[in-house]
Protein: Nitronate monooxygenase
Organism: Corallococcus soli
Amino acid sequence: MNGANDGRSGPPAPLPGDAASPTDGESDTGGLPGPPPAICVLEGNALKTRLTRAVGIHYPFVGAGMAFVSLPPLVIAVSEAGGLGMLGTAPEPPLVLEARLKAIRAGTQRPYGVDFIVDRAEPHGFTSRDHIDTCVAAKVPVVVFHWSLPPLEWIHALKAAGTRVWMQAGTVDVARQALDAGMEGLIAQGRQAGGRNLGSTPTLALVREFRALSSDMLVLAAGGIADGFSAARALHQGADGVWVGTRLIASVEAYAHPLYKQRLVDGDAGDTTLTTLFGPEWPGKRMRVIRNRTVREWAGRESRVPPPGAVPETIGTTRLFPGVLDVQYVMPKFSSFLPTPDTQGDLEEMSLPAGGASMSRIDTVQPAGQIVVEMMERARRLLESPEGLDEEDEDDRG
């Protein structure tokens, strides 16, 4: 967007009770490279929904908390532009989470959140009570859980600290369990959504199913949301906000490998698939990924993938917990860890989470703040004359 309505205002005024911003010349991005200047929402720009009123944001836009990719620079950029930036935590330990939260609070005084994966069947897991206690101590505004419901005591501790607790769910059954557990928001993860995905229902159909469970619950649409039209359509059909992942991987601030970002720009609907091919760090879990060479070669044979040997075959190297612990990691064949700027190796061998329905709407890599403002302002204009937003058919090719 160009001109006075493109969202490029000065820094937002401090909000009561927020930590002070860094002084001029200082930055704290948790050891990561500094982000470009933030694109800040103009105070007059807004698209109000139940979500924006509940959380105190300008736009009903939530950035997906993607592991490895959604680090403080991306969180800050989304929040500064008027959305809700979400930190992706898996598989980071509590010490790293604490450093990430410090970096976020140094970079923005606007609301943000943290996204956790919970797998109660996994002996080592990704999320512990220490992670929850870290969020409680930091008074994180929003915490989201994905895959499995967390223990009830975690939910109670977060809510007692004033944190809003949401659940990302792909089925009505899990959504109903989340409601019974006292969660305050649902992210309807449709089958189009990239990454770890348990859903089998198209996004907008799932939004309608979740809305039927409760007229008062916050419901966000996840899967295939990548431009103003897809966002407006979700809001028009009952969502209180949109949860955006794939589009934000193709942003300047996303901590993703440049060639991975380019694959999203070059790809189209139908270029992704659901597979259980990638482990061994978290085996047997379904993901929507780009159909690269390895995915095509093993299509239909995922159950015959050999277990790692004593000396497993490797496909490259990467760096875990960048800017904090900087742990070098040798990636085994079929690694589920996606490529970041620190990754060396052949991306045709790697997991590239993405939603094809979103890829079809991506033309270029842009600053995250520009993505937020352009998508939301376009959605606002479409909702003023909503012809064509009622159609129930949706592109669910992935």
Remarks:
- The chain has two domains: 50-255+361-384, 258-356.
- Residues 368-384 form the longest helix (17 residues).
